[in-house]
Design brief:
homodimer; 205 residues; mainly alpha; Arc Repressor Mutant, subunit A; 0% strand; DNA-binding
DNA sequence: TCCACGATGTCTACGCTGTCCACATGAACC
DNA sequence: GGTTCATGTGGACAGCGTAGACATCGTGGA
């Protein structure tokens, strides 16, 4: 990205800004996604950003979508491993939960960015939030639950809305671990609680 | 609070700033807690705030503590109602969950403020976060779970760490409803999901 | 009674932010 | 080869958090 520098036109500023934004989110979460800093890192004057994003919030939403896509990819990787196991359906649901918690642990900045909302994002169906499979994290969870029903591991009557229950439990834990009363716990303690939460969902659904 | 105005000294500026901060948090969540605006509402110059709060973040933390205390009070009210029911222990746990979700619904700004962390708050044991009973929301949940064990409704072996599981589920739902994919659902839909989440916890614990 | 002192509020100023407007540049197309 | 239009620049503004020096005032010791 330095080759094109020293020419008046950047070449691919939108991508450069987005990547700078992602890097900022990684380092410091959503509030660290600062328009001026992104332009600085892209080697460009602040206002240049407005040719590609309507506002700081528009940039943040783009970063947010990228963060969701990264989560989807992480889930897909974990799912691939689950496919080699007996009781694939259950293993897949567990894989989703584990991937979610692991992502929150390893990429706290991105995770917080993915789920922090200011204003009205309307991310439903945004293709930018999808992983390689074309599904976003929420859709991946839904698919895993469908598998459970197909495999007879979940009564069909319990299926509707089940993603909300599962998501709630795992998301809540992630938030508590990240910025709630669980913040000071060791990684192992949190993993243990994670296992219990996933088990609770499995049993309580 | 206008009587004391027109005198050089405000009289109770700390309280005035805190209350302005709470009002701001109510209206727009944590990011709306703006130091200058708080001083404006208190009828005072921006820097006056620094006699009472070391920084904007210190003010925000004070507001945060107040929000947690408000949640504790809401829980206590719901608990009082639960005490009149048969199976008090179970009713209490449900009451905690319901109060939590209702608070998130009715006071979204305060709720988001209570659980948004920037930096390192160290709220553990802060008496400012407690309700009338002297317990903060987390402690109230713990007490309800202890009751469950005492009543034989929860195996003692499951007790350690159970608050994290319960909290995770309800907190996650609240966040999803507030700023996640459930944002566009009707209040009734979310209440229904809330019932199911609480049931899942009860069953899955 | 007076006066010094410490606490509290004010004034001025700095660098940071997001954003608006007018202008410069240059790639692409007729 | 000249025009057009997307893209980057420059300068400006208001609002933010915050620092340092100064003003005001209630209070306690002489």
């Amino acid at each position: 990205m330095d080759a094109a520098r020293h020419s008046y036109h950047h070449g691919d500023l939108r991508r450069a800004l987005l990547e700078a934004g992602i890097a900022l989110a990684r380092e410091g979460g959503p509030e660290a996604v600062v328009l001026r800093e992104a332009t600085r890192r892209a080697g460009v004057v602040p206002n240049a950003a407005y040719r590609h994003f309507a506002s700081r919030d528009a940039l943040l939403q783009a970063v947010r979508a990228a963060a969701l896509a990264a989560l989807a990819v992480a889930m897909e990787k974990e799912l691939a491993r689950a496919r080699k196991q007996p009781d694939v359906a259950r293993a897949s649901l567990r894989a989703i939960g584990i991937a979610y918690l692991r992502f929150a642990d390893r990429e706290p900045g991105l995770f917080r960015t993915a789920f922090s909302v200011t204003g009205d994002p309307e991310t439903a169906g945004d293709p930018e939030t999808a992983g390689r499979s074309g599904m976003n994290p929420f859709q991946l969870l839904g698919a895993a639950l469908d598998q459970m029903v197909a495999a007879g591991a979940l009564p069909a009557a319990q299926r509707p809305g089940a993603e909300y229950l599962a998501w709630s439990a795992v998301h809540g834990l992630a938030m508590l671990a990240l910025e709630g009363p669980l913040r000071r716990m060791t990684r192992n303690q949190i993993q243990e609680i994670g296992r219990r939460v996933v088990a609770m969902v499995d049993k309580g659904l």
